[in-house]
Amino acid sequence: MENKRDKAVFPKKLLNNFMEENNEKWINEYRKDSNFTKGYYQTLENFFKFKDYAKKPFNLFNTSDVSKYIEIMIENGFSINRIDYIISNINTFKKFLIEKHPDVFNENLLKDLLELKMGKPEKKYIDTQPLNLVQLNYAKEYIKSNIRTEYIFEILYQLNIRKQDFEICLPQYADRENMIFKKKDKIIKYNSKIQELLSKINTVSNFKATFSMIPDHLTKIEQYLKIKGVYNENRTLTYFDISKTHEAYFIKCPNCGIEYENISSNWALAKVDFSNNYYLVCSKCKGEPLK
Ligand SMILES: [Zn+2]
């Protein structure tokens, strides 16, 4: 599997041999005005040759346009580095055009683009914040209105997976008897909350969730929190914030070692005969000696 990324290719049948004329014009302009390697511009050209973009000038792109391309890369085994490299390139190109043609390119164009990255967080995302109690409970209320939002939020919040592992945590890979997601040789354990959610999804026809839907659905939650007046107007809710929220609200049971959310029904108090100290243990194992 060494050098896997060098072998991954974008399916030829999904590529045109031309670009939309504005896109071609802008890339040529970019090439003249900047000084990157040949491969850098080539990457951009390949991106814009994607069949879906044949009639779409870049100034009209939204994040889901880009995620279509990224999803095909994921399906075809491109490495995380390669995917993140392309997202960075598109982002740099976008910045160039916003500066150069402010009349054509809105400054908010592809605002969430960097959230599609799968690997290392960008610097600005190191500045993450867990949801506070009020925000978390509004978020939980909101997600009940959309099963996809609920699934995406709960997978991230309950399991605190790496972003790229979202592709494993999908209903079609669930082994419900063993409460694990299993895709090829990768296994991720899940908890009873996810088990419940999977039962619910079983009754929904055409349920679909993908990695690239994450930013969209988090934005919906963010907007709801803003409407409720409990979220800073200038913040964007990201995957990293949900990860921090998990870390803030989940506690590992000292007896069985399983993590549970710090809701009182998940916890019990246990003591040993000869001491008056009560310890917090999960309500599943109740502090009993493990078999
Ligand atoms: Zn326990």
Structure explained in plain terms:
The chain is mostly helical. It folds into three domains: 4-120, no CATH class; 126-248, no CATH class; 253-282, no CATH class. It is 42% helix and 8% strand. It contains ten helices and seven strands. It has helices spanning 4-7, 21-33, 38-48, 63-75, 80-100, 133-143, 147-159, 192-202, 214-227, 239-249, and strands spanning 174-175, 180-183, 186-189, 250-252, 259-261, 267-270, 279-282. The strands form three sheets. Strands 1-2-3 form a three-stranded antiparallel sheet, with no helix packed on it. Strands 4-5 form a two-stranded antiparallel sheet. Strands 6-7 form a two-stranded antiparallel ribbon. A hairpin with an 8-residue loop joins strand 6 and strand 7 (279-282). The site of zinc ion has 8 residues, from strand 7.
Strand element count? 7
Distance between the termini: 40 Å
What's the domain count? 3
Q: What's the story with the biggest beta sheet?
A: 3 strands, antiparallel
Low-confidence stretches: 1-5
State the strand order across the main sheet.
1-2-3
Shape: elongated
* Helical run tally: 10
What structural class is derived from the secondary structure elements?
Answer: mainly alpha
**Cα radius of gyration in angstroms:** 23 Å
Give the integer mean of the pLDDT values.
90
Reading the helices and strands in chain order gives HHHHHHHEEEHHHEEEE
| Fraction in helix | 40-55%
Beta-strand residue percentage: 5-15%
List bound small molecules.
zinc ion
